[in-house]
Amino acid sequence: MPLIATAPAHRVILGLMTFGTDESTGARVTDAGDFNKILDLFQSRGYNEVDTARVYVGGQQEAFTREANWKDRGLTLATKIKYPSEHGANVHDKVIESLDLSLKELGTDAVDILYLHAAVRPLFPHLCLLNYIGVVAEDVTQDRGTPFADTLSAIDKLHKAGKFVRFGISNFTAFEVAEIVLTCKYNNWVRPTVYQGMYNAITRNIEPELVPACRRYGLDIVVYNPIAGGLFSGKIKSTDMVPAEGRFSDAAHSGKMYRNRYFRDSTFRALQIIEAAVEKSGLTMIETALRWVVHHSALKVVDGNDGIIIGVSNINQLDDNLTNIEKGPLPEEVVKALDEAWAVSKADSVNYWHMDVKYGYDTREALFGPGAR
């Protein structure tokens, strides 16, 4: 197993959220042969890093990746502690239990990157947001009720046991990033060195505070949704145009969540601005979105170690996406149109931490001791 990625031209990570055997829990690539062909192409192009999680495809994704012989392939792999979809999910013992189960499912004694995921909220009635990854629950209480120190001490214990190399965090606010980093520093615990978050040309809310925080505290930034969940395909033109299939459809576990995230009138007005400039320049919407992230965003993809997670449902999509990522900067007029589009979508754009920040414990006492005010 390589301990952290090799060095391709750009850090491109294959997201495995929809790779598994069970379509009813969100899988779109269900055949092991197809999975192996996708990995073959990915590695033949010089890329080596994959991203999974304990809960993807109803908890079955990691085993599917084990069956693809990820270790023998020499892949660098990141997984995530089970999503904190209930109160107490991030307590010490459950964190350890989650990674131990992941290691068993993956058939390994260690992974390259271990992510801790922030709490997320239900975005539609009666069903938890986590339905899109195969977890069904009602009236879920999200776990921002566990003090960071309890969770982070477990992470450090796992690190000292040699069960992962790098510690990552995902979907936390900028001020939580600071608290996590400093809590680790003052306790001599392993600190996070990579942040995973949502980012694309029409969803740039990480730029004002989160990106500077990551730079200050030494975290690489890895982003998901670079093409806005596929919205940059241009197939969907308005909020009332719900597709029959795909990520935004009612048939998909992710459908309602993704529509809640992106279906705003301002989003589609922004896409119209981009589409006009793209057509004039003879480009495609998807290549424009990907090239923007690589060459024009706040990330350091070309001259740093920031990365892009791409999700695909077939090998042709992967081939096209990699080809687009490997292209150079966009024409100046297209970049200008993308900036104009962001000015339109910005006011209604969803925040990057996905939920109201409410804690189920006395944060001052947790930080400063009993009776602190």
What does this structure look like?
By secondary structure, this protein is α/β, with parallel strands linked by helices. The chain has one domain (11-233, 298-326, 355-368): NADP-dependent oxidoreductase domain (TIM Barrel, Alpha-Beta Barrel). It is 39% helix and 12% strand. The chain has 14 helices and eight strands. The chain has helices spanning 32-44, 56-59, 61-67, 70-73, 92-106, 148-160, 174-186, 210-217, 255-262, 265-281, 285-295, 315-325, 332-345, 363-368; strands spanning 11-15, 49-51, 76-80, 111-117, 164-170, 192-198, 220-224, 307-310. An eight-stranded parallel barrel has the order 1-2-3-4-5-6-7-8, surrounded by five helices. Helix 5 links the parallel strand 3 and strand 4 (111-117). Helix 1 (32-44) runs parallel beside helix 12 (315-325), helix 6 (148-160) crosses helix 7 and helix 10 runs antiparallel to helix 13 (332-345). It is globular. It starts with 10 loop residues before the first strand and ends in a 5-residue tail after the last helix. Mean pLDDT is 87; it is low at 122-141. Residues 12-342 form the NADP-dependent oxidoreductase domain. One of its GO terms (molecular function) is oxidoreductase activity. It comes from Podospora didyma. This is NADP-dependent oxidoreductase domain-containing protein.
